[in-house]
From TrEMBL:
It comes from Mesorhizobium delmotii. PANTHER family: D,D-DIPEPTIDE TRANSPORT SYSTEM PERMEASE PROTEIN DDPC-RELATED, OLIGOPEPTIDE TRANSPORT SYSTEM PERMEASE PROTEIN APPC. Residues 74-262 form the ABC transmembrane type-1 domain. It comes from the Bacteria. GO terms for cellular component: plasma membrane. This is Nickel transporter subunit membrane component of ABC superfamily. It is a multi-pass membrane protein. Belongs to the binding-protein-dependent transport system permease family.
Amino acid sequence: MSPLRRFLLAPEAIAGAIILVALFTMALSASLFFPGDPQTIAGPALLPPFQDWSLPLGTDRLGRDVLAELLHGARTSLAVGLAAAAAALAVGAIVGTLAGFAGGLVDEVLMRITDAFQTVPSFLLALAFVSVVGPSLGVVVTAIALGAWTGPARVARAEVLSIRERDFVAGARVIGMHPLEIAFREVLPNALPPVLALSSVIVAAAILTEAALSFLGLGDPNRVTWGGMIAEGRAVLRTAPFLSIIPGVALVLTVLGVYLAGEGVVETTAVRRSLS
């Protein structure tokens, strides 16, 4: 049975894939349906949803279109989640590979640095970093990656410690390959699958962290974010709860979709590896 067929036979994988397809569709269609600035005034303030079909999800306190903000906010969530996960996985894989393959003093130093980062909660680290450097999309991505690379580093190190004793690594040493070449060309590709399995968790955590930072006013001020929309709705939570509920539901569904799709991929690859 092909991996794709196994993936499609898992109900949680299908549910996650449907949610992610809807999210990507929202992000890609934002400029098509709302080509202008999503923060421009579009109608009367605090218009409830479904009262005016030109503004199906209503307007916020300043009269901005909630649907336009929602679609453009999906772009920010996806950009931050994917970029932070890619950065964390890349840094973690490199550090874990160097620590596991070199051993000795290099392993000890790199693992103590990893321990130091792990002692600080990732959200507090991101909060402190953004507060010092200043809010922007690149800074938020870097701040989230700073607290997320330690997990992939430990997983990569554990895999490399096992792989480095295998025959093909000894053969690479015999033919005179440089240790770094062996580590990154021969060992790392074989250690990557368990590391990549963490990607769904990192993406989901990154989206939540970005929303929390935006909620606290530390997101990119030039971009619409779901966390910022939720924070905007706090002042009128009693009279216009939809301003916080709509982006909140979108945030929950996104994280759920990423997690379910990731679990489906992990189960599919686990079955394939066990069969092989």
